[in-house]
Hints:
With about 100 residues, the protein is an all-alpha fold. The protein has two domains: about 60 residues; about 45 residues, no CATH class. About 55% of the residues lie in helices and about 0% in strands. It contains five helices and no strands. Helix 1 crosses helix 2. The longest helix is centred in the middle third of the chain and has 20 residues. The relative contact order is 0.11.
Amino acid sequence: MRKAALTLRPIRTGADYEAALKLVEPYFDDEPEPGSEAGAHFDALVTLIEAYEAKHVPIAPPTYEVFAGRRPLTLAMIQRLHAELGIPAEVLIQPTPKHAA
């Protein structure tokens, strides 16, 4: 990765947030070695993104309806589960089973 690509900027707007998500996305496919320059960049990006999300992207706690399959996960829930627990997004984006009333 080029040095210019490793520059960090504060995340202050939705556009900054989207840009940061695009920068961090390739790291999830090929996670850099801890302690490397790319690893430090990855860690810093994740920290900035988490700080922005904590302030601007509230995620409601899942209800028992989600666990029971009566209500689907929201996009925000899917993103958080994928980012923080490493659950593949394709596993989380599944049709909700229909329950008989």
